[in-house]
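Protein in question reproduced for absentees:

***
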Amino acid sequence: MLKALGQVLFTGLQVPKYTTAESKGKDYEIRTYEAATWVSVTLKGTQGDAVMKEGFGKLFKYIQGENDKKVKVEMTAPVTGRVEAGADPASESSFTVSFFIPQEHQADPPKPNNPDLVIENRPEITVFVRTYGGFTNDQMVRAEHLKLVESLRRDGVQFCEEPFYRVGYDPPFKLTNRRNEVWLLQSGRA
């Protein structure tokens, strides 16, 4: 109960429900997220920051009422970006940018007007999470992703190399105490 309350109060926004397990290392966390409904858009690009911004903009229009019910949907956290890297650094990567649908709309979310957006029913997932602060960018995401990979290898933990998630909790106008994360899936999960 206190954990769930803390999850809402940390950002001031509704977040998906999860439980934590003890990790071998102190530099990452293990979370299991309950199955939930998200709204998502998949885009391709070589610059993650630009693609995440574009995806955020499309999803923001959806929560502002560009949906079949013409209702505003409350902003939630986090914004996730599922990254499937291209064949090489110069190739385009696939980014699936997603907003968690608030609890009051989980059972019957408004359908997006934009055909690029989809309602996604995510199954329960277990992820390894590395948290970091500041204003994030592609370079920081890469560095934190590599640190998480190194930590999991050090601890002999089974994880999926791809995809990985870049995750943000804060609006652009928040200047301090910002929260960003990178996630890797536990092996056997997609």
